[in-house]
Fold these 3 entries.
Entry 1:
Amino acid sequence: MKKIFALLLCAIMCFSVMTACTQSNQPQGTDTPDEPESGDVLVIRLASITAANDDLYEYRSGLLFQEKVEEYSNGTMKVEYYPASQLGNSTEMVEGVSVGTINMGMSVGFDIYANLDPICSVVGMPFLFKDYEHMHAFLEGDNDAIKTIKQSMIDNVDIRVMGYCYRPFRSVVTMAKPVYAPSDLAGMTIRSPEAQANMQWLTAMGASPVTISWSELYTSLSNGAAEGAENSITEFYGANFQDIIGYASETNHMAVTCLLTANNTWYESLTDEQRAVLDKASQDLSDYNWAGFQEASEKAWKAFADKGVVCIRHDEVDDAAFRAASADIYKYFVNKGDFTEELYNSILNLKY
């Protein structure tokens, strides 16, 4: 028995010596940021409501952000991307970013953020922007209006705007009736997101807005719970609405600027280097969306036409009638105190 014990002790000692020799032969003090220890990796939860469909430029922009964060950080930061409302619907995602249970969110617009910080409503005012260049200059230019809105979101709801997911201006789709003018919407039940700006616009057009979550809208239109909806044509395309609706009208009544956001307390807790990585990757996401959204819009309109949907493009709708019916909607929000008329006019009259 003593011999067996001695042999085991000898084997253990030999193994320890071999291990020590192996470790001493490894280079010392050589950090390898490309292959960080798992405990050194900052994991970021990014939520999105956009469908996980490689055909959608907005979904791909989330993948780009994921890739760039890892690239710029040499692997010390990793994005876990949750598209298709995996972490909740629009309202739940925005609230999650605000309280910090979600680090970052994308694909939800100012209209939903307005439920937390009312000043955001101003960006969704009907016919606020003359064209896409006007919208782009406001969002990414050096102007007091966007600075005021961004700072308000930080101060009031702990949300930092990081970048933008650009989409075409909003259109109206209907099941059985074409829409050329506001009078065509009178009496119709039209889906609205949980956003006051959209509901006020539909009401001004004579429609009856009904709030239905985006994930349930396809079924709701199919079973008659709503007669139509309003959103960006690319979003309708991404959810395959071309398979069920009869008419699509390019009213261009509102901007659909969606955001890439971060919980500000979490963001401020990061190192300077980590924040720089997120800032750079966020700008890449914005640039990617800006470069691709108008082409994606035309692709969506073609897909609708190819499916036999009656597509009423912008030059066919009564733009003047829509603008006239929308003219006073902003005053409702000014009277509520959501934003000032001065802020509204500074965006409306922005030089670009």
Note: The chain has 15 helices and eleven strands.
Entry 2:
Amino acid sequence: MKIVFFGTPDFALPSLRACVDSGHEVVAVVTQPDRERDRKKISFSPIKQLAAELGLNILQYEKVSRDGTEELRALGADLFVTCAFGQILSQKILDIPPLGTINVHASLLPKYRGSAPIQWAMIDGCRQTGVTIMRTVLKVDAGDILISKSTEIGKEETAGELFDRLSVMGGELLKDAIKLIADGKAVYTPQDESRATHCRMLEKSDGLVNFDMPAEKLDCLIRGLTPWPSAYTKLGGKTLKILKAKPCEKRFDIGMVSVVKDKAYVGCNPGSIMLEEVQLEGGKKMDIKTFMLGHKLDGVKLG
């Protein structure tokens, strides 16, 4: 079986390795074009870097549906695999491989179709999420499901940590999916549209903290926004990132910092959060005890 893999960021790395390790031929890897970064340095996508290390054929298009159809058709691939590619594939491209196109998506579909499903599941306080392998169709993440696997979200886990776990899980599940397809045992189940939910891309402004919310909900927000864009508030006119905190039942004035036995609490509604790691604009990440050595927090109103 010949496979073409479409992917771009580091989340897709285990899935590319799964395709290579499946024993089938990866005839091409399609990824986003190289980008100019700081100081005009050219940056390759993580997928391009791995594909180059593995000696795979690399294809890059500004718009694959406009520029890549004929080149992809000429590869004679049996299956296309997409994972966090970053471009929409046209129906002409989806129709090329006789065994179809499958996608690795980091949620338990039909919940959390769209961008940032890992972060939004955590922000919304879900206790469980997972990975789904489904058929790629024109409608975003709406294709029939081939296989899925769930996992519990840790009480102190951040979105970055969950991202890493689901990335690995996605690669493992993709191996199973490819085997099912190769063995002629693939069965696709339509999604229940009545249960579908959609999530949008995160923006930096999503990180602005409102302390007038339950501490448990704020804890989910902080963990869901770590490492990007990070939950933040204002301290003395500067941005203060809240990188790590714990929800508590202790009650304090909303948004006010109260220092009790070297521990800094910020009042919520209800409860409070205990700050553990912060970063002030222009400064380094610090645990809260170290931060308080140089900054007065007790009795300070954040925001």
Note: Residues 123 and 221 are 5 Å apart (CA to CA).
Entry 3:
Amino acid sequence: MKKIGILFGQERSFPQAFVERVNAKNIDGVIAEPVSIDKVVQAAPSGYAVIIDRISQDVPFYRAYLKNAAASGAAVINNPFWWSADEKFFNNTLAEKIGVPVPKTVLLPSKDHPLDTSSDSFSNLAFPLDWEGIFSYVGFPAFMKPFAGGGWKNVYKLNSPEEFYDKFNETGQLVMMLQEAIDFESYFRCYCIGGKYVRIMHYEPRNPHHLRYDARHDVSEEMMKTLEDYVLKLNQALGYDFNTVELAIRDGVPYAIDFCNPAPDADLHSVGQDNFEWVVETAANYAIERALAQKDGEDNLTWGSFIRNAAGKPVMVD
């Protein structure tokens, strides 16, 4: 029996619907259930062919559990090793390398010293930084946000260097990035599942949360195809099985704003019935596909083209 498990936290609508949908398909030898963990022994199989991860970004214990499960052959969605290594600033760097437009972005060291460090720990960091050069490159208005994500927590919109310094003083030990604000005409949030299935959702982030999907933007079919191409390009390079990409169109150019969302919102009450139906059905079909292809004891993870290309290079030895 191939078991598909879903690992989740406080959310309820998507996990329950996902399990019910997989089981309703009555695929011979495949069953879905919420993941159950009573102990985690090193190198012991998890008992699952596939695990959908919706919570390990908030629970380090779960991230370690998933890595252990993957080592024995579980197909974890998303790859817990890559998810541990990835962050939003690198996402922007990779996007530039593969030809997807992104806002101008600069990485900033934390305002306060990290624990167990002192000024001597930063011998290689210029003081002061080239703030004039940074502000000239990014421009204002700009957004300052944590480099590793966290939704809308600790996100600031800034209109001047004076506002920047004021808010930067509040960021403590967070590593931040300063990013060009894209004054967009239209905005889209796009599910991508399996690096091949895309759902482009009209979205308005300036609306109240419950009305953000209540939007309709007038764009051409050609632009919609470009959006889909960018979504696929990004997820295939990163290696995410389940992700959302947010794209903002300014002057006819779609900019990838946020595309490090490996546990994206899939709640019925926020994404709406049509989007919810698509994500439940597509996730169920993809999980079944992965379960049927899974082989015990082998690497069943998805690795993006960035890692696969690096792994294919010869090892340098003396």
Note: The longest helix spans residues 273-293.
